[in-house]
């Protein structure tokens, strides 16, 4: 975004709209002060990056686009035509330039257009179809920009008073910024998905049992349990832990909320800013409800959420329901052997940050993270057959003693994009 919007409110709203869609936004010129004025948090981890006040600082983001072509597109230095073809086709970037435009901004905009990035402006100037789109009101810029680049975004609109976006996933809430904390290492906490009969569930019922955030002292620690009850014709108990593993990501996507851990070892911090914006416990329920219904629509017909902070009730839920349930799941796996199954599963969930990483998950061999069991991988595959966990056959043994199979090696080669040739499941000494 180049220049200042007509008002600071409009500028900040545009920036936040992109941030909520998971789009990286870089800022040049007056828009930076507008964001500061409107308390928009900025930084690389929040995907809103101020580059500088002078229009020439736009070169930093051009550099990112060019490097994308060199690194990921294998474009050779000096191949200008190949570079421009790559950025046009593969780098879904665009420019929003606010009026008044001067010659330097126009020159920078022409450079963007040459790379295939359309420029949208609110200035009343001439149009170059698909390249320079004038007279776009600030409120329409988001939709017009996505349209110009044919970007389709699946958004889950959730009724909460703060933003919900993957940009907030790595956000750290420091003790001094924290309104309250729920800490499973000190008090009883747990998170649980429980399959029920359809008649036992009232869809979208969010219940808070116990004191809410405004009844806690600033900086205090408390117990929490949230139980997500689901029902559906194709729902299976095996899917419960798969949903639970996603809670970490869902809750972290809330602006000003930090979540770590899983099962009964969780910690959640809620920031003062988020509390002051009106965030309360029912909103945790809203986030869990919306995401479970959205992501697992194929198997979840009805969903209700209970958020419990009554300490005695949380202790009861943790020890009498959650822990026995976790133990039952673990015991089921503990009695299974690799020989007892016909197939293993691959998992590439970590390729988001480690592009050639692949795990082969077997009953006796969890994924590297320790959080994906053979049952979890199986359920993930059933829920999303083209997703991160794929069936790996084990029909062509090379050496069963060290767990080497031709078909497992083939899978490892395929999913690591050739970075790994083979794997022995039981030995790091011999192979
Ligand atoms: S099983 Fe492997 S790839 Fe999958 S989430 Fe765990 S560490 Fe990552």
TrEMBL record:
Positions of the CO dehydrogenase/acetyl-CoA synthase complex beta subunit C-terminal domain: 326-431
Keywords on record: 4Fe-4S, Iron, Iron-sulfur, Metal-binding, Nickel, Transferase
Membrane-traversing stretches: none
Domain of life: Bacteria
Any one GO molecular-function label of the UniProt entry: metal ion binding
GO biological process: acetyl-CoA metabolic process
E.C. designation(s): 2.3.1.169
PANTHER family referenced in this protein's UniProt entry, alphabetically: ACETYL-COA DECARBONYLASE_SYNTHASE COMPLEX SUBUNIT BETA 1, PTHR42281
Listed name of the protein: CO-methylating acetyl-CoA synthase
């Amino acid at each position: 975004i180049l220049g200042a919007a007509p008002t600071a409110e409009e500028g900040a709203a545009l920036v936040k709209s992109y941030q909520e869609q998971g789009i990286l936004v870089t800022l040049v010129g007056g828009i930076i002060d507008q964001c500061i004025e409107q308390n928009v948090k900025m930084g690389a981890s929040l995907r809103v990056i101020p580059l500088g006040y002078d229009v020439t600082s736009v070169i930093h983001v051009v550099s990112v686009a060019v490097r994308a072509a060199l690194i990921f597109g294998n474009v050779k230095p000096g191949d200008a035509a190949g570079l421009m073809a790559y950025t046009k086709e593969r780098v879904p970037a665009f420019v929003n330039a606010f009026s008044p435009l001067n010659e330097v901004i126009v020159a920078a905009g022409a450079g963007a257009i040459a790379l295939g990035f359309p420029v949208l402006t609110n200035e009343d100037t001439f149009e170059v179809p698909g390249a320079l789109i004038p007279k776009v009101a600030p409120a329409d810029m988001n939709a017009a920009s996505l349209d110009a680049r044919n970007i389709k975004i699946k958004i889950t609109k959730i009724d909460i008073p703060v933003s919900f976006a993957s940009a907030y996933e790595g956000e750290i809430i420091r003790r001094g910024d924290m309104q309250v904390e729920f800490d499973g290492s000190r008090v009883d906490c747990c998170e649980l998905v429980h399959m029920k009969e359809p008649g036992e569930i009232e869809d979208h019922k969010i219940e808070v049992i116990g004191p809410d955030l405004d009844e806690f002292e600033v900086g205090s620690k408390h117990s929490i349990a949230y139980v997500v009850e689901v029902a559906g014709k194709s729902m299976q108990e095996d899917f419960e832990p798969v949903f639970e593993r996603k809670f970490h990501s869902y809750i972290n996507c809330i602006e000003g909320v930090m979540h770590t851990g899983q099962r009964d070892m969780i910690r959640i911090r809620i920031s003062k800013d988020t509390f002051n914006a009106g965030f309360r416990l029912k909103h945790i329920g809203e986030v869990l409800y919306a995401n479970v219904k959205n992501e697992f629509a194929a198997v979840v017909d009805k969903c209700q959420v209970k958020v419990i902070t009554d300490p005695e009730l949380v202790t009861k839920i943790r020890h009498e329901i959650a822990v026995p349930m976790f133990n039952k799941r673990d015991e089921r796996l503990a009695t299974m052997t690799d020989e007892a199954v016909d197939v293993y599963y691959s998992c590439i969930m970590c390729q988001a940050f480690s592009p050639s990483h692949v795990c082969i998950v077997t009953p006796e061999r969890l994924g590297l993270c320790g959080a994906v069991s053979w049952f979890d991988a199986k359920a993930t595959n059933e829920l999303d057959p083209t997703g991160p966990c794929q069936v790996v056959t084990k029909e062509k043994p090379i050496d069963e003693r060290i767990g080497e199979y031709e078909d497992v090696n083939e899978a490892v080669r395929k999913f690591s994009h050739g970075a790994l040739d083979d794997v022995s499941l039981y030995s790091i000494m011999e192979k």
